[in-house]
Each structure stands twice: as structure tokens, then as C-alpha cells.
Amino acid sequence: MPRFAAPGSFEFDFGQKWKDLYMMQEDGDRALKRQFDEGMSKLEIEQAGALMEHQTAMLRQGKSFLLQKPFISQPLHFMNLTVCGLKYIFGNVYCK
Questions:
Q1: Confidence band (pLDDT; 50, 70, 90) for 66?
Q2: Which residue(s) pair with 92 in the sheet?
Q3: Rounded distance, CA 31 to CA 4, Å?
Q4: Is the CB of residue 26 less than 8 Å from the CB of residue 32?
Q5: Contact predicate 77/93, CB 8 Å
Q6: Cβ–Cβ contacts within 10 Å for residue 23, how many?
Q7: How does DSSP classify residue 87?
Q8: Model pTM above 0.85
Q9: Which of 64, 69, 84, 88 is the most exposed place for a label (fewest CB within 10 A)?
């Protein structure tokens, strides 16, 4: 049978402090993951835009970007060229 500490006791007070500390850690972890996901999305959009600008500049110079070696030798997941479950970029695939 579980034993619960009586409210106001030494065990209850420190148990509550530990619980609060763990809850604070969980909140921080969720906030950090959200910030990371937002940053990753922004960077993917920035990279896609820069790639389009680069390809446009190459076309204006008369160079075909299709004939050049890509700057990343594997498919880019932000361009929906990866298959979920396969590890293409840095060993991770982010499927949403």
C-alpha cells in the first residue's frame, strides 16, 4: 500500500520542491524543443530561398545548375526529396 506524506511535513515539503523542479525541467524541455523546431523551419525556408536565388543567378549567367554537382550529395529533406524512415541528412530524417 502506498504511503503518502502528511501535508506540512518535512517529507511533503521537500517532495513538493522536487516535483516543482521536475515540472520546471519539463517546461524548459518543451520550450527548447519548440524553439529548435521553429529555428529549423526558418533555416530550411532560408536555405530553399537561397538555393532558388543561386539557381536563378546561374541561369542568368548561362550556366545550367542541373549540370553542376549539387552542394549536398544527398537529397534535401526540406525539398520533400527524402523518404521517411531512411537516414539521409546527418543521420536523421524529420518527417511531419
A1: low
A2: 89
A3: 32
A4: no
A5: yes
A6: 10
A7: -
A8: no
A9: 69
